[in-house]
Design goal:
Layout (H helix, E strand, L loop, with lengths): L1 H23 L16 E8 L4 E8 H10 L5 H13 L7 H15 L3 H8 L4 E7 L4 E7 L9 H18 L6
Helix pairs in contact: 3-4
Length: 176
């Protein structure tokens, strides 16, 4: 019994530490499952160019792999369309159901991209999807880093800006 309370105390302290780090990194937290914060995770970020909205979802790696196996029949085109549609529904007040659906759509989409396949080889647990809303186009990129902590908000904004600048040169039809 004593060891269970020690483990619970450790897990509670770890979750509080993660929350502190994320808040210090600029994230506004809305946690649906505190226990899901403990294991190594995949971090999915969304940036919408129309509204300048940035969103983060963390998914335990085991749950991410399980979900991706269940979603394997969905095509990259279908999942990209679902991601864009869910982002388009964002109204400033995220809800658990909407966020869960967006996370599933992102999981289905990311795992079918070359970005994900290349990212697995360089231990990239951070995947960003830019929504070019005017053209209904989503675009992923991967970032290597820790599978325990989200990247700081300002770092994501800088990387998104770099990718958008590059896309303006290489794919101007995406960026209108």
């Amino acid at each position: 019994m004593r060891s269970n309370s020690l483990i619970e105390s450790f897990e509670k302290a770890r979750i509080q530490s993660i929350e502190s780090v994320m808040k210090a990194s600029g994230w506004k937290l809305q946690i649906h499952d505190r226990n899901a914060m403990v294991p190594s995770s995949i971090f999915l970020y969304v940036y919408d160019t129309q509204s300048k909205w940035l969103w983060l979802c963390t998914i335990a790696k085991t749950d991410f792999y399980f979900a991706s196996a269940k979603l394997h029949t969905i095509s990259v085109e279908q999942s990209a369309s679902a991601v864009a549609a869910f982002i388009g529904l964002h109204n400033g007040e995220p809800s658990g159901t909407w966020e869960a659906q967006l996370a599933l759509a992102l999981t289905a989409y990311i795992t079918k991209t070359a970005t994900y396949q290349q990212g697995k080889g360089v231990a990239a647990p951070h995947f960003v999807v830019i929504n070019y809303g005017a053209t209904n186009n989503v675009r992923p990129f991967a970032i290597p880093g820790s599978d325990r902590f989200a990247l700081p908000v300002d770092q994501i904004h800088k990387m998104v800006a770099q990718v958008i600048d590059r896309d303006k040169l290489l794919h101007p039809h995406w960026v209108s």
